[in-house]
Design a protein that fits this description.
The protein has 178 residues and is α+β, with helices and mostly antiparallel strands. It is elongated and about 80 Å long. The strands form two sheets. A four-stranded antiparallel sheet has the order 1-2-3-4. The protein has a three-stranded antiparallel sheet with strand order 5-6-7, covered by helices on one side. Strand 2 and strand 3 form a beta hairpin. Helix content is 54%, strand content 20%. Helix 1 packs antiparallel against helix 2. The protein has two domains: 92 residues, PH-domain like (Roll), CATH 2.30.29; 74 residues, no CATH class.
Length: 178
């Protein structure tokens, strides 16, 4: 896409974004694994009436699950890094003359333009993983979303406080020019 006149690209830390997605997915995989193992233990306990048989069945199920998990993990360590890099390369945030532009996606590309007059709130968010990586998310709220979900989420912005101020300043200048 061609750059518009007065377009200001918002700098992002692509390496931190890749690290965030990796850590986020690892915690998700751990949560799913713990849930599945707990469900298998309950399933084995309900199906088998003796204690020893319960543990033998449980160990068999867990062994099968671990083999499948290792195959998935091996694929994940080879495929996911490539996907994270491509996904991060496709990520672009910029301020144009009357709007904020957000571009993302690999297979399904998304180009969202949010006019400044529609922006009702900017929220800086930092959870434990983001805090560890010294990153912030900027959530862009608009009145038109009809829900509590943000219209856009800016991840990995290098100077989030400055970007927030830049958006607010650009919004004020837009209203002054009207």
């Amino acid at each position: 896409m061609e750059k518009e006149i007065n377009e200001k690209e918002i700098d992002i830390d692509r390496q931190k974004i890749v690290t965030y997605w990796r850590v986020h997915d690892i915690f998700g995989l751990l949560a799913v694994t713990l849930s599945v193992v707990t469900a298998m233990l309950l399933f084995a306990w309900i199906l088998v009436d003796t204690w020893w048989d319960t543990w033998r069945l449980f160990l068999l199920i867990v062994s099968l699950f671990l083999v499948i998990a290792l195959i998935i993990a091996a694929l994940a360590f080879y495929i996911l890094p490539w996907l994270y890099e491509r996904r991060t390369e496709a990520l672009r945030y910029s301020l144009v003359s009357r709007a904020l532009r957000v571009e993302s996606g690999i297979l399904f590309r998304s180009r969202k333009t949010i006019p400044f007059d529609k922006i009702t709130g900017l929220e800086l968010v930092q959870g434990p993983i983001l805090r560890y990586l010294d990153m912030w998310i900027i959530k862009i709220q608009t009145a038109s979303t009809g829900s509590h979900a943000p219209e856009a989420t800016l991840l990995g912005v290098l100077h989030p406080d400055q970007v927030r101020e830049d958006i607010l300043t650009a919004k004020d200048e837009y209203f002054k020019s009207q």
